């Protein structure tokens, strides 16, 4: 597993993998386009705090990153103008019949979504365990899933990792996702990592 020296950095998507993760079965037909080391380490029991913190973040109003704030605001305005977000979680997952990834879960795993508050996140909770949190979002460009994992780093310590899985929707989605890749990699995700790092430090101080 990647070392703690890479916390807050983008990693090779192939490193976001554990054969025991549920996500590998749930989104096996999705593409893992990004993976990041989250700047948070702690005990096994502290994963819940990371998940709660993540779901409470409001990057659209991130005073610490004007660039990120602008991009989220611009995306919202474009979504309103072109109606990209009007059919949230109502369209089938591209290539399938399910509307939500929850439909791919057994009853026991699906019930775990009730164990955590979705907070301010625009993503919907798919499932939540002591080592994984899976969120999803669907609009006219993409059906996307964010996967947070709590990965052993040695001894009794764990570190956070994040994977972004997507299935593009239509020609618009196939154009849109590559077009925004530089903004994701150099503005949005770095701003997210800084927010998480600051929140994690404040929580333990």
Q: Which architecture would the CATH scheme give at its second level?
A: 2-Layer Sandwich
Question: Average pLDDT, to the nearest integer?
Answer: 82
- CATH-assigned fold name: Alpha-D-Glucose-1,6-Bisphosphate, Chain A, domain 4
Parts with pLDDT < 50 across at least 5 consecutive residues: 63-75, 77-84
Described by strand count, sense and barrel closure, the largest sheet is:
6 strands, antiparallel
Q: Tell me what portion of residues adopts beta-strand conformation.
A: 15-25%
Measured distance between first and last alpha carbons: 27 Å
Task: Give the SSE layout.
Elements: E1 10-11, H1 23-26, E2 31-42, H2 47-56, H3 66-82, H4 107-111, E3 124-128, E4 132-138, E5 142-154, E6 157-168, H5 170-204
Antiparallel strand pairs: 1-2, 2-6, 3-4, 4-5, 5-6
Polypeptide structure, described:
By secondary structure, the chain is an alpha+beta fold. It has a single domain (4-204), classed as Alpha-D-Glucose-1,6-Bisphosphate, Chain A, domain 4, CATH 3.30.530. 35% of the residues lie in helices and 25% in strands. The protein has 5 helices and 6 strands. The chain has helices at residues 23-26, 47-56, 66-82, 107-111, 170-204, and strands spanning 10-11, 31-42, 124-128, 132-138, 142-154, 157-168. It has a 6-stranded antiparallel β-sheet. A hairpin with a 2-residue loop joins strand 5 and strand 6 (157-168). The chain is globular, with a radius of gyration of 16 Å. It starts with 9 loop residues before the first strand and ends with a helix. Residues 63-75 and 77-84 have low confidence and may be disordered.
């Amino acid at each position: 597993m990647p070392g703690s020296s890479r916390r807050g950095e983008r990693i090779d998507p192939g490193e976001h993998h554990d054969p025991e993760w549920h996500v590998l079965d749930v989104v096996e037909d999705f593409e893992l386009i990004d993976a990041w080391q989250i700047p948070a380490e702690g005990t096994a029991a502290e994963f819940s705090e990371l998940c709660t913190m993540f779901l409470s973040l409001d990057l659209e109003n991130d005073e610490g990153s004007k660039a990120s704030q602008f991009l989220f605001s611009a995306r919202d305005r474009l979504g309103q103008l072109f109606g990209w977000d009007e059919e949230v979680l109502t369209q089938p997952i591209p290539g399938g019949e399910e509307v939500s990834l929850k439909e791919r879960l057994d009853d026991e795993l699906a019930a775990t979504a009730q164990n955590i508050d979705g907070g301010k996140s625009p993503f919907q909770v798919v499932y939540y365990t002591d080592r994984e949190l899976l969120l999803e979002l669907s609009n006219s460009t993409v059906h996307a899933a964010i996967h947070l994992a709590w990965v052993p780093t040695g001894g009794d310590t764990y570190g956070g990792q994040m994977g972004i899985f997507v299935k593009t929707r239509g020609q618009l989605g196939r154009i849109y996702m590559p077009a925004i890749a530089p903004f994701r990699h150099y503005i949005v995700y770095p701003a997210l990592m800084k927010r998480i790092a600051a929140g994690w430090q404040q929580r333990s101080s």
